[in-house]
Specification:
There is one protein chain. The chain contains one helix and 15 strands; from the N terminus they run ββαβββββββββββββ. The protein is mainly β and 248 residues long. It has an eleven-stranded antiparallel β-sheet, with no helix packed on it. Strands 5-6 form a two-stranded antiparallel sheet. Strands 13-14 form a two-stranded antiparallel sheet. It is globular and about 55 Å long. Helix content is 2%, strand content 58%. The model has no long low-confidence stretch (mean pLDDT 91).
C-alpha cells in the first residue's frame, strides 16, 4: 500500500485546414498519462510504487484524398517523463529518465482493384534520452525504421482474405543505455494471414501468425563486458487460430 498525490491531466487540441478539394493540412497537440498497473508495481527495483508516465505529443501533417485513395505524411514529436520500462536486471519495472521520440511517417490507402484494398505505412524514428547520465544517447528497444503492408481481398459477398507483413529494423539491447554495444536485436519481417467466411450472423475465420516460422526476437538484454552476454525473448513460432463468431 502507498499514499501519494499525483496531479494528472489529459487533453487534445487539433486544427485542420482544407487547401483544395484533395489536399489539407493539420496540427495536433495532446497531453496524456498512463498509470502503472498492479503487475508493474509488484516487482520494482526500489520496492516503491512507480510514478505515472506522462506524454506530450505534437504533430503536423499533410493529407491527400481522392475517392477511395488517400495518403498522409506526418512529422511528430513525443516527449515522455517517467516512462515505465521493464528491465531484465534486477527483473522489474522502473521509471526511466525523460525521453524524446521524433520522426516522419507516411501512410497510403489504395483501392488497387474493385475488391482489393492495400494499406502501407513507413516510419523513420529517432528516440533519445534527454536528461540524466545517458542524455543524447539512443533509446534501447526502439527500431529506427519500420513498415507495414496489409492487403484485403473481398473474394465475394461471403469470403475475404487478408494478408499482412511487418518489418522492424534492428534495435539496441535493453541494458545498453550507454550505447556501447556493437550487437543489436536483429531486424525482422513477420507475415500473417486471415481467411473469413460469413453467412448471415455467423463468421468462421482461420488466422495464421508468423507464417514463415521466423526464429527472431522482440526483446533482448545485454550484459557483461562489451555486452558479451545476451538474452533474448524469441517470437512465438507459426500459429493458427480457428474462430466461430455470431452477431446478435
Amino acid at each position: 500500500q502507498y499514499s501519494r498525490d499525483d496531479t494528472l491531466r489529459a487533453g487534445e487540441l487539433g486544427v485542420s485546414q482544407a487547401l483544395t478539394k484533395q489536399w489539407s493540412v493539420y496540427l495536433r497537440g495532446s497531453t496524456s498519462y498512463r498509470l502503472p498497473n498492479v503487475d508493474e508495481n509488484r516487482y520494482t527495483p526500489s520496492q516503491q510504487a512507480l510514478k505515472p508516465q506522462r506524454n506530450r505529443d505534437r504533430e503536423i501533417g499533410v493529407k491527400w484524398g481522392q475517392g477511395a485513395q488517400s495518403a498522409t505524411v506526418r512529422y511528430f514529436v513525443q516527449r515522455t517523463r517517467d516512462e515505465i520500462l521493464f528491465t531484465y536486471v534486477p527483473y522489474g519495472n522502473s521509471n526511466i529518465d525523460p525521453t524524446r521520440r521524433r520522426g516522419v511517417e507516411a501512410e497510403v490507402h489504395a483501392q488497387v482493384l474493385p475488391r482489393l484494398n492495400l494499406v502501407a505505412t513507413v516510419q523513420q524514428l529517432s528516440a533519445q534520452y534527454t536528461e540524466g547520465a545517458n542524455a543524447g544517447k539512443s533509446m534501447v528497444l526502439v527500431s529506427p525504421r519500420s513498415a507495414t503492408v496489409r492487403a484485403n481481398w473481398q473474394i465475394d459477398d461471403r469470403q475475404s482474405l487478408e494478408l499482412g507483413a511487418q518489418f522492424l529494423a534492428s534495435a539496441r539491447f535493453s541494458g545498453d543505455e550507454a550505447n556501447t554495444c556493437s550487437e543489436r536485436v536483429a531486424s525482422s519481417t513477420l507475415y500473417d494471414a486471415r481467411y473469413a467466411w460469413k453467412q448471415s450472423d455467423w463468421t468462421v475465420a482461420l488466422a495464421g501468425n508468423n507464417l514463415t516460422d521466423r526464429q527472431g526476437a522482440n526483446y533482448g538484454y545485454a550484459y557483461g563486458t562489451n555486452c558479451s552476454g545476451r538474452s533474448v525473448y524469441p517470437y512465438a513460432g507459426r500459429s493458427w487460430r480457428l474462430s466461430v463468431n455470431r452477431s446478435f
